Amino acid sequence: MKTRACIWTLAVGSILVLAAIAAHAQQPAAAKGKAAKAPTAPPGINWPSPPLPDGPIVLDTGIQHQIRLIVTKGLTQPWSMAFLPDGGILITERPGRLRIVRNGVLDPNPVAGLPQIQAQGLAGLMDLALHPRFSENKLIYFTYHKPAGAAAAPGNNAGIITLARGRWDGAALTDVRDLFSAAQNGNASRIVFGRDGMVYMTVGVGDPPAAAAAQDPNNLAGKVLRLRDDGTVPPDNPFVGRAGYRPEIYTLGHRNALGLAVQPDTGAIWECEDGPNGGDEINILQPGKNYGWPVVSFGRFYLGPRVSDNPWREEMELPVVFWVPAIAISGMTFYTGDKFPNWKNNVFVGGMRQGEVPRSGHLERIDFNEKWEELHREGMLRELQNRIRDVRQGPDGFLYLLTAENDGALMRMEPFTEKK
User: Fold this and answer.
1) For a Cys-Cys bond, which of 77, 285, 299, 363 suits 94, CB 3.0-4.6 Å?
2) Cβ atoms of residues 104 and 112 within 8 Å
3) What secondary structure, in 3-state letters, does the chain show?
4) What is the pLDDT of residue 64?
């Protein structure tokens, strides 16, 4: 879609952004003498997910049919994973621990070497990625919320979303250092290495009024950033040298991005993000483009009002896939292996709850035509009633999933053929 790049459009767009945010921040008239309050969610439903069986768990799916899940328990709110060349699987836990699974067994001792992490609310230890030349340099990258300390904004207790790296010595992280600190907020941060060797890093943002930052080109919240592997800015970033724009920005207008993946045939970066009560999206990122939050969305706020009357505007990009109601999307991978031939080039995303209802977490499979236009969606693993935080294809061609639970687990998904 062609973006109008002129000063008049930017000026008008800025005015419309502020107007839209102000309009949707409105509440029903407050009682006389009392100030109106900002939108809030309805009271939560207290219905914890059931514990997973020890496994193996055999389930049926649509076109692939029977699959088997091998379960490794003992994790607490696992968030991301990375596969080591020796077969080990590193797993981040949001409360601030790095764990390792070898041969399906979780090491009871956390991996040493992490910095101090501020884990509160939805913040903590986030994503994990190996450097493309890991076999040579042993570098592991991760995002986390760094304690703000003296740098804390008044009234803001959230940590600072930070990109860091350390060197893997086979048992622990060494020489750990921060590379780039983005913003003080409690939202998520994913990372992925593109084929260009650059780090793509998400910085989330919430709902109005804070959501205005997603449209502010001088603010990193609600953006996808593009950085060199040392945390510096590549000279070919879309806004380098442009007055009023942070040079780290690759794309803007995002809410809370919880998945990044590299498209296998083109190398494009795909991103998935949570809407509020509806409006979860998958986007194909293009440099310098605006993906609309909070000006346009297919979703609704938690109390019911639409985010926008029109879900599209000419100078903003439409999602490739969207969900209404939301599935609380989290984690994304393309399947390119041979273990599940019927799933070749399908996209998998995790869902933590559908329509704000507990025990509705599941995995979704989406297939596309040759133009990457959506054809089908299949919801899987609903029987488990667990929240799916992340999904990755392993080097062995199996799919691996993490459950977003206090008694969380790693699950390896493999084909299953019943013996006769």
Assistant:
1) 77
2) no
3) CCCCCCHHHHHHHHHHHHHHHHHHCCCCCCCCCCCCCCCCCCCCCCCCCCCCCCCCEEECCCCCCCEEEEEEEEECCEEEEEECCCCCEEEEECCCEEEEEECCEECCCCCCCCCCCCCCCCCCEEEEEECCCHHHHCEEEEEEEECCHHHCCCCCCCCEEEEEEEEECCCCEEEEEEEEEEEECCCCCCEEECCCCCEEEEECCCCCCHHHHHHCCCCCCCEEEEECCCCCCCCCCCCCCCCCCCCCEEEECCCEEEEEEECCCCCCEEEEEECCECCEEEEECCCCCECCCCCCCCCECCCCCECCCCCCCCCCCCCCEEECCCCCEEEEEECCCCCCHHHCCCEEEEECCECCECCCCEEEEEEECCCCCEEEEEEECHHHCCCEEEEEECCCCCEEEEECCCCEEEEEEEECCCCC
4) 93
Closest CA to 362 of 55, 69, 24, 32: 69
pLDDT tens sequence across 173-187 = 999 999 999 999 999
Joined together, the tokens standing for residue 29 give: 């008239």
**What's the CATH number for 57-415?**
2.120.10.30
Dihedrals φ, ψ of 384, to 5°?
A: -75, -25
Phi, psi (deg, nearest 5) at residue 379: -90, 130
- Amino acid (1-letter code) at residue 160: I
Place of tokens 């639409």: 306
Nearest to 93, CA basis, from 413, 392, 404: 404
pLDDT tens per residue across span 25-41: 333 333 344 454 554 68
Instruction: Show me where the domains of the chain are located.
Output: 57-415
Question: What predicted TM-score, i.e. pTM, was given to this entire model?
Answer: 0.90
Quote the pLDDT of residue 151: 74
Rounded-to-integer distance, Cα 83 and Cα 81, Å: 7
- Whole-angstrom distance, CA of residue 133 vs CA of residue 262: 17
Q: Which two tokens stand for residue 38?
A: 């900002």
- How many Å apart are CA 317 and CA 151, to the nearest integer? 35
399 has which bridge partners? 393, 413
